[in-house]
Design brief:
two-stranded antiparallel sheet; 2 domains; alpha+beta; two-stranded antiparallel ribbon; 4 strands
Amino acid sequence: MYGSPLPKGGVGYYVLDVSKGHTVQERQRHSLLPRAQVQQAQQQLLRLVKDLLAGQPVTTVPLPIRLTTVVHPNRASIVGTWTGNPLHLLLFRLQMDLQTAEVTRLRTCERGQSAEDHALRVPVCGRWFYARDLRQQYCSPECGKEGRWTRYWQTNREKINRRRRKGSGVNPSGETV
C-alpha cells in the first residue's frame, strides 16, 4: 500500500515531465524503490506503528517534501500532489492515513497466539492487518479457518476417523455399497 510515491490513478491531475523518447511507464518504473530499501522502510514504519499502539508519541525529523497544486482543467477545484524523497513521502502518507484511521483496528493476526493454539502446534501468523470489523481477530478467512479446523480436529479426531472408516463405501462382507 505504501510502496509507490505516486497515488494510483483517477484521484488527481498530474503534469509529468517525460523526456522525449521515454514513456510515463518508464518514469514510474524508475520511481519505484529497490526491494531492500522498501523492506527497510517497512521495518521503520512497523516500529512507528508499534510505538503508536503502545501509547508513545512519535515525532519525525522535518521532512523535505513539497505540495504542488494546480487548478483542475475541467473543475473549479485545486488538485495537489506531494513530491520529494520517496521514503519521506511514504512516512508522511502513513502518518496522514493513521490520522484518519481508527488505530485500534490495527492488529496482528491471532492465529497460533493462544495457549490452546500453542499446545496444538497451530502455526503462528502474526501478520499486521486493519480490522474491518471490531470483532475481527484474523488477518484473513484462511487464517481463521486453519486455527478453527486444527482445534476441531484435535477435539473430534476419533469421531472423524470412525466416520471415515464406517463410510468408506464397503460393507463388512466386502461388497461395495
